């Protein structure tokens, strides 16, 4: 039997690399989906790739309470409830030391990566209670358990959602609502291309290329490569499904061994 048969899943950040991979995998495993993002064209394309009989979409800014309530209600109206929230929407911000970091960029990263997750939990928990429980999966990062220079906003946000997850896990347990984070290392996505390009732009040595930065980052991962979105989605599927029925409050690394050896 498909592992998400009969379940309804909400996925934010659904048009990015990890979100889209999760949408396809969840649909293959029987879920009905409401996909959330800002880009309606990309949402339509993702729904079509998944199958319109299995997926609907809602255009929403996850930082806004009314739009968050609206996307949760859209899933209830279309599918009858919500069993899984994959709080995956996130942005990388910019790269610069803390004294030089733009305040507006810091605020936007925290709004999307932390406030957006908090709002999703706030409005989906009552709906899950009506279903007798559910699973909330939050996308954190290896940056959520470590740190590096020049990414203060992103690193702070990914630490913050682990604390939020643990609080929500404690609050949700009596209602059968499980909450966990998935923490990827560098993954082959648009976000990592953006970070690599920003990293090269901040270097004094103009001869260093994005490809060299990519190879250097890969070399710091024990398995010697970036992950792919499908590998992250498989962990998300485990946590969304009843296979993880005794798992809550956990931090699940998908990082090729990077956290084992530090950053």
From TrEMBL:
Protein name, entry field: Uncharacterized oxidoreductase YxbG
Gene Ontology BP term (one): lipid metabolic process
Domain called Ketoreductase: residue spans: 7-185
SUPFAM superfamilies recorded: NAD(P)-binding Rossmann-fold domains
Oxidoreductase recorded as keyword: yes
Native source organism of the sequence: Geodia barretti (Barrett's horny sponge)
InterPro entries (alphabetical): KR_dom, NAD(P)-bd_dom_sf, Sc_DH/Rdtase_CS, SDR_fam
Pfam family, one: adh_short_C2
Keyword Oxidoreductase included in the entry's annotation: yes
Family from the record: Belongs to the short-chain dehydrogenases/reductases (SDR) family.
Keywords tagged on the record: NAD, Oxidoreductase
Molecular-function GO term, any one: oxidoreductase activity
């Amino acid at each position: 039997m498909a592992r998400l048969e009969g379940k309804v899943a909400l996925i934010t950040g659904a048009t990015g690399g990890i979100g889209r991979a999760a949408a396809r995998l969840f649909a293959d495993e029987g879920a009905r989906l409401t996909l959330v993002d800002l880009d309606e064209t990309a949402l339509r394309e993702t729904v079509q790739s998944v199958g319109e009989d299995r997926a609907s979409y809602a255009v929403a800014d996850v930082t806004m309470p009314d739009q968050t309530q609206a996307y949760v209600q859209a899933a209830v109206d279309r599918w009858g409830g919500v069993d899984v929230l994959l709080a995956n929407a996130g942005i990388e911000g910019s790269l610069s030391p803390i004294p030089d970091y733009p305040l507006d960029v810091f605020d936007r990263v925290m709004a999307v990566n932390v406030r957006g997750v908090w709002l999703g939990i706030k409005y989906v928990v009552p709906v899950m209670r009506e279903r007798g429980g559910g699973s909330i999966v939050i996308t954190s990062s290896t940056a959520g358990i470590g740190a590096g220079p020049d990414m203060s906003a992103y690193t702070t946000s990914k630490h913050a959602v682990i604390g939020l997850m643990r609080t929500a896990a404690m609050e949700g347990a009596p209602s059968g609502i499980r909450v966990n984070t998935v923490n990827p290392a560098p993954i082959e996505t648009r976000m990592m291309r953006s970070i690599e390009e920003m990293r090269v732009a901040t270097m004094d040595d103009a001869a260093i290329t994005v490809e060299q930065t990519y190879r250097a980052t890969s070399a710091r991962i024990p398995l010697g490569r970036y992950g792919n979105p499908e590998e992250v989605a498989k962990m998300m599927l485990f946590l969304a499904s009843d296979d993880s029925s005794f798992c809550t409050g956990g931090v699940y690394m998908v990082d090729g061994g990077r956290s084992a050896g530090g950053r």
